[in-house]
Model the fold of this input.
Amino acid sequence: MTFFKLPFLVISLFFAISHALSLPPPPHKTILAKRDTAYIPDTGLSWSASEYTTAQNATIFALVYSAPLPSVANFSLPILANLGANTIYNTNATADPSESAVVRPNVDTVYSVAITDLSHNDVAITIPSITDGRFYVVPFYDMYGNNYANIGSVNSNKPGTYLLRRAQDAGVYYGFDTTNPPPGYAGVIYSPTTYGFILTRILLLNRGSDIDTVKAYQTGFKTELVERNYTSPPQPPALTVGLLTRGLNGSDQEKLMQLTARLAPYNLPEETSTIPNVTRILDLAGLKSGTYIQPPLTNLTEAASAALLSVRQELTKPSLQQNFGNNWHQLIPEVSGNFGNDFAVRAYIAETALAQLTTEQALYPTFSPPNATDGFLSVGADEAVMFTFSGKPPVVGFWSLTIYGEDFYLIPNERGVYSLGDRSNITFADGTKIYPGGGVWNSTGDVRDGQFQILVQPAGVVPPGNWTGNWLPAPSGGGKFLVNLRWYGPTSDLIDGTYVYPVVSKQAAIRA
Done:
């Protein structure tokens, strides 16, 4: 499974995880202790070891460590091929079922994308003034998919021009700094890697004329190259299609190792304390001086199987799961969006949900049916699943419930409804609109709260008129599906479980 299907793409994911890892992990007891140790596959490797005894173990680690690179490359290639790096590409609509570029697409926001290349220049990024209070975020990702900085409405950041530069060139830790920016800049974003990407999200308030407002905002986002006086050695090459594709050959695992050898020297771990050990392990695995030479007595096929098993074992650790109640869960905040040294979780998210945001920007609770072994919900031709919400989700941005088919894409239906939330015409049981003001972003008059329900049943089974606004169509004729809640700008009640998450129950379909 790749995020962008490109005929010229020569990079293949080494993970055969369409069944094993694309499914939500099961819920476990919540443990929110801060994790401060680096992840190593359970193969005898340890940060405290003075040396690593086998190249095979190092190869397993290298495959886990480098797993996000193909997904990020897939994401980057079409933009590099058509626009090049450091140029903003604006989409002009939300996703629909005809598109298969991204799994589990968000249908709430419009995207602007830039692939960032800091090999030879810094980049100035201008953020326009979003004057109507809607949610927006400009997230910065490194080459491994870590969301290491955010500018936007949740953080109440000011419009203006920000400088993006490599942390290693400045001799500082990665992140976002507004305390003492250079003259003319509102702040500095320090990237942990030379290459990366930006995936701006702007909330679309309705399916009508609001797209014109969003387009006008998009024109205000700009980039400009900025000369710099110093580049920390070694000098990186420019990020191009050729860098990501040329000369990769052999098995999928060999291509991944070749790509990693090519990129890793210029895209170091974000936690600087781990750089010496990661460099040493990659060297033992045969990644040296920009090339990969497979060490004697190593088996890449076996290493890939062991790497996959290591990722699966890591994901089932109770300490990584946050249970919100009623079978809703997600990974704990410490490994959501920015994964630190947990390279296994990083690998999983890059494959299943690339460009995840950190918890203060968004939560992505997933429902796991208690009696399902594959993580999917299902309905028969005359069945329904009811989502009973305890009250309005307390967000400062927006919220939505989106449904996906067994293939992880949007489900076609005549009504063109793929998601319901605070900008939808959902009602309480008595027919009163839940959001008469138009959503969280414009909550004037939205004072009533209380229980409400969202109905999921097959697309061809039309409910009575009083259910139409609360109906989310499932596959026609019945079948399996997934749902994702999205809380953008979540409050503490959503994070700590004070808010009672929706109760999910199966029943007979409600027919008109």
Q: What stands out?
A: The CA atoms of residues 426 and 469 lie 5 Å apart. The first helix runs from residue 55 to 66.
